[in-house]
Design goal:
six-stranded mixed sheet, 25 helices
Length: 692
């Protein structure tokens, strides 16, 4: 139970403000559906009561001759005759009448039976023939009628009604915001969430840790929003828009909100995909509406998250020949951005992870002319973010933000926030009074690998394979110079597929050399190579590894120009259409690429295998220890297989020290520069006086 709870909490992921706060969640529609179902069911049952028993013509003749019938109704559209019996005749047919289902009507007033006929005319002729010996006043005559059953209803007016209801529902769904029933009229309204008045943004720059450069750049916008006159009086032009570029969860939304919070202005927030709708022209209408609303609230900020949903370069992503609704939306956005004057006080901020796919028109001066990069935080940034999110927690004394930040390489701000929350939940579940380092350790594992699957059944044999597989990664990483040092390796099953994983400490770097990529490839292949060496067999466990190295190898050859045979060539086309099926190279080149990729991977595999065969004793030791302990850290590795043979920072502390030293050196440099500058200034000020 507790496990489940935590699972749910994990998904929580710090909800952003709900985009449509006031929309009743389909209560009205729900009632409509229920009413419809009840109506249909009751019609069905009512129609059941009209099911009459048919009788044979012979039996009917008897009834006529015995004067047992009180009424005959020819149902023209069904070719039957409904027979109503006289009261005194009813007991005679009691048994047959009781047989009939839903006999409410058949028992009393009738009709009681039905008789299939060929046509009304032939029936009447036969009836007359049958009664020709009966005195005229005792003869029975048939009247005619038409009857619409449930099916007639459904095929006729029912179908029409259903269609109307269907169309109505369709618009309901698509209309989005607005009161019930009004959606169709609101479809062109912008779906932005407005933070104003009571719900004003309260986030300030203090809530945004790290990102110092971004904050500095954006400070100007805050100043402008606070006091636009100061800028415009000097004839200066303020950027209309700023584009925040960076991976998800790095705090782009947070930063934009902080700008609004600092400046104390209303904040319109929406996502690029909110513009996109099935109907042509809706996106453009929403853009116009958004700007209309914003003008009323100016000065204000419009924040468009994931702007690439509308802002992709025109022609890209569209099926060839298709008239793209998104293009209209983008055009309208461009027009609106041009349309408002710089002093109108509206600033547009947008976030994207893919600035390369954006239409160049969006990035022109006068639109999003400012690009602010919001990258994943480095070790110093992570520490700062940890500090922000640790603040509300009750911590035990062993929690050190420095160490936490060192253990979370590659984490974005959102993940760090998640770790902190998760750690607090874990501690609470254990009934602790303060969150300690162990809780954080577990929280990090959970955020990286997903939930621990304690009761996932793994046979001892499989476990052995996993242990050797992971040990293979670890050993390869340990003895390859350019690979990232290992932080931790575990064979506790987690998440959906992972049976174990090895976590490395990546360097904070943006450029990779060929050797690094090759070494990384070898580390990734280490798992399969180990299985191969130890068991002489391979397993499916390496699928994920293989996928990664295949992608990497193809990128090396076709994107990064890292292959000798193909040379310095990159086939990557950042502006091209996604649906471009024409490869920009010939069949021969394609074959060459495939061959080269295969060769790269083959070489790397052989190299890994050689390395692991050489270190087989160490591999065995590590795998056995893993089977015993399930989790091993870097220190264990040092103990078991010896120091890493490369002069590289291996432990967190050393790594941090290195970073700190770098920082110090930078500061020293800055100080020196400042000194030099102030000296230069004093020299400058002295000279004029001297010349006087
Ligand atoms: P993005 O818009 O880049 O996808 P968000 O701004 O929505 O990311 O960030 C999600 C959450 O992550 C924030 O609400 C915040 O709790 C946390 N977060 C991200 N970056 C930072 C940061 N630099 N400082 C503090 N918290 C951060």
């Amino acid at each position: 139970m507790a496990e489940n709870n935590s699972g749910d909490n994990r998904q929580q992921d710090f909800p952003k403000q709900s985009r449509r706060p006031n929309v009743p969640s389909g209560g009205f529609q729900g009632w409509l559906v229920v009413a419809l179902i009840i109506a249909l069911v009751s019609i069905y049952f009512l129609s059941k009561t009209r099911v009459l028993k048919s009788i044979e013509p012979l039996q009917f003749e008897q009834m006529v001759l015995n004067h047992e019938i009180s009424k005959l109704t020819i149902i023209k559209n069904k070719d039957i005759v409904e027979i109503t019996l006289k009261k005194e005749a009813l007991p005679k047919y009691k048994a047959e009448l009781n047989d009939q289902q839903g006999s409410v009507m058949t028992q009393g007033t009738g009709p009681h039976f039905e008789l299939p006929i060929n046509s009304a005319f032939s029936f009447e002729t036969e009836l007359n023939d049958l009664q020709k010996d009966i005195p005229r006043e005792q003869r029975i005559h048939a009247t005619s009628d038409e009857r619409t059953g449930i099916f007639d209803f459904l095929m006729g007016p029912g179908l029409l009604i259903l269609m109307f209801v269907g169309i109505y529902f369709m618009f309901f769904r698509m209309g989005g915001a607005g009161g019930p029933g009004g959606q169709i009229f609101n479809i062109g309204r912008s779906r932005a969430t407005l933070f104003d008045g009571e719900a004003k943004v309260k986030i300030t720059f203090n809530d945004v840790a790290g990102l110092d450069e971004a904050k500095e750049e954006i400070q100007e916008i805050v100043e402008f929003l606070k006091n636009p006159k100061k800028f415009t009086d000097l004839g200066g032009k303020i950027p209309k828009g700023a584009l925040l570029v960076g991976p998800p969860g790095t705090g782009k939304t947070l930063l934009a909100k902080a700008v609004a919070g600092e400046a104390g202005v209303p904040f319109f927030s929406l996502s690029g995909s909110d513009f996109v709708e099935m109907f042509v022209g809706v996106g453009a209408a929403r853009v116009r509406d958004l700007f209309k609303q914003a003008k009323e609230k100016a000065p204000c900020i419009i924040f468009i998250d994931e702007i690439d949903a509308v802002g992709r370069s025109r022609g890209r992503g569209a099926m060839p020949g298709a008239n793209d609704e998104r293009e209209n939306t983008l055009n309208s956005l461009l027009v609106e951005m041009d349309g408002f004057a710089t002093d109108s006080g509206i600033i547009i901020m947008a976030a994207t992870n893919r600035p390369d796919v954006l239409d160049s028109a969006l990035l022109r001066p006068g639109r999003f002319d400012r690009q602010i990069s919001v990258d994943k935080p480095d070790i110093v940034g992570r520490e700062a973010i940890f500090k922000v999110h640790l603040k509300p927690l009750k911590l035990s004394s062993d929690v050190d933000p420095k160490e936490l930040s060192a253990q979370t390489p590659g984490f974005a701000g959102a993940e760090i926030a998640n770790v902190c929350n998760e750690a607090a939940l874990i501690a609470a579940r254990r009934g602790k009074t303060a969150v300690d380092m162990k809780d954080f350790q577990e929280a990090m594992d959970r955020v990286i690998g997903g939930l621990e699957k304690k009761n996932k059944l793994i046979s001892p044999e499989e476990k052995k394979i996993v242990a050797y597989h992971e040990a293979g990664h670890a050993i390869a990483g340990w003895f390859l110079e350019h690979a990232n040092p290992l932080v931790k390796v575990t064979i506790v099953p987690r998440g959906i597929a992972a049976l174990g994983y090895a976590q490395y400490l990546p360097k904070e770097q943006f450029l990779y050399r060929t050797e690094q990529l090759i070494d990384e490839m070898c580390v990734t292949l280490g798992g399969r190579a180990a299985e191969d060496i130890i068991f002489g067999k391979i397993s499916t466990g390496a699928q994920n590894d293989l996928e990664r190295i295949t992608k990497l190898a193809y990128s090396m050859v076709t994107i990064y120009g890292m292959n000798e045979k193909l040379g310095n060539i990159s086939y990557y086309d950042s502006k091209g259409s996604e649906y471009n099926f024409n490869k920009p190279y010939s069949e021969t080149t394609a074959r060459e690429i495939d061959e080269e990729v295969r060769a790269i991977i083959q070489n790397a595999y052989q190299r890994t295998k050689d390395l692991l065969t050489e270190k087989r004793d160490k591999l065995e030791i590590l795998a056995q220890e893993l089977l015993k302990k399930e989790v091993l850290f870097q220190s264990d590795l040092e103990r078991l297989v010896g120091e890493r043979p490369f002069a590289q920072l291996t432990t967190y502390q050393e790594f941090i020290k290195g970073e700190e030293e770098k920082e110090k050196a930078l500061e020293l440099e800055k100080e020196q520069k400042a000194n030099e500058e102030s000296q230069a200034e004093s020299v400058e000020t002295e000279t004029p006086e001297a010349s006087k």
